[in-house]
Amino acid sequence: MTTGTRVFTRGDALRWGVVLLVLALDGAWLAASERSVTAASLGGSCLGVAMLAAIATALSLIASHPRITATSRGLHYRRLALVAHCGALLVAFTNVMSVMSYLLVTLAPPLVDGRLAALDRMLGFDWPQVYAWVRAHPGIGLILKLAYMSGLAQLVLIPMLTGLLGQATYLREFIANLMLSCVLLLLIAAPWPAAGAYVSYGLASPGELATVAHFGQLRDGTMHVFDLGDMQGLVSLPSYHTALALIFVRSMRWTRVGFVVACVLNGLMILSTPTEGGHYLVDVVAGVGLWALTAGMLHAFAGRRMPALAGRAAPTQLA
């Protein structure tokens, strides 16, 4: 079995270690602040992770059977196991990081909305005018809304498609990009929180304001119970939708058609971020920077790791 089709690697152990570390921090912070996660949503999340992990383990064991491992069925089982394993990792990671993002908002440092709006003006971007223009053109608004909402669907479909079609290297790259970018996102956003353009300009509809309602409740201390099934994206700077769009595009470069589709869809998603996500333009620029920083760090890490692997392989080749 080659590394590309291996279900569990040492890198996966590191990723699960990150999940467990954040989980421990979440638990300690929740207890110290007398906050909690609803039992129903926590139980549902744990059950989902456990089921996916069990499926991955079972399929991996089946694939490793001597009568199956060298056959095409063994390859299919390994691919399914890898997808299930990555699914378990994604569900666990997104949940623990969602809780951490909420807890970081409760720190309530001064808002930076004024500075972000001023930077937008320096860039020549008039958010209220752009928002009004999009709302005056319902067809364009619908396209941008659907593009913005596609982020969640892509987060599920891209790793499934990549894994099932045997692109294990790209799948693991996708997971690494997603996890590192999310950690960096919270480290950047925590000291520079912003309520967002929806709240700052007061032009959004009640439905749009409802998508960021938890932000104020967390900052003023009135929200003490978190529902994992009803978590909101509360980070304004940098725009994670922008970073994700670029990660999605990069993860599909193994297929020409998929890459072109990803470029068009995620280009629209980036364009939709200011009006459909309530972001300042500078948030989008920072989202591009977040993606570049993540890609650069992972590239540097891979560059340092390859010589070490080559050094360990050399004695084997000589033998």
From TrEMBL:
<dbReference type="GO" id="GO:0016020">
    <property type="term" value="C:membrane"/>
</dbReference>
<feature type="transmembrane region" description="Helical">
    <location>
        <begin position="178"/>
        <end position="199"/>
    </location>
</feature>
<keyword id="KW-0812">Transmembrane</keyword>
<feature type="transmembrane region" description="Helical">
    <location>
        <begin position="12"/>
        <end position="32"/>
    </location>
</feature>
<dbReference type="Pfam" id="PF14378">
    <property type="entry name" value="PAP2_3"/>
</dbReference>
<feature type="transmembrane region" description="Helical">
    <location>
        <begin position="256"/>
        <end position="274"/>
    </location>
</feature>
<feature type="transmembrane region" description="Helical">
    <location>
        <begin position="280"/>
        <end position="302"/>
    </location>
</feature>
<keyword id="KW-1133">Transmembrane helix</keyword>
<feature type="domain" description="Inositolphosphotransferase Aur1/Ipt1">
    <location>
        <begin position="116"/>
        <end position="294"/>
    </location>
</feature>
<dbReference type="InterPro" id="IPR026841">
    <property type="entry name" value="Aur1/Ipt1"/>
</dbReference>
<feature type="transmembrane region" description="Helical">
    <location>
        <begin position="231"/>
        <end position="249"/>
    </location>
</feature>
<protein>
    <submittedName>
        <fullName>PAP2 family protein</fullName>
    </submittedName>
</protein>
<feature type="transmembrane region" description="Helical">
    <location>
        <begin position="38"/>
        <end position="62"/>
    </location>
</feature>
<feature type="transmembrane region" description="Helical">
    <location>
        <begin position="82"/>
        <end position="105"/>
    </location>
</feature>
<keyword id="KW-0472">Membrane</keyword>
<feature type="transmembrane region" description="Helical">
    <location>
        <begin position="146"/>
        <end position="166"/>
    </location>
</feature>
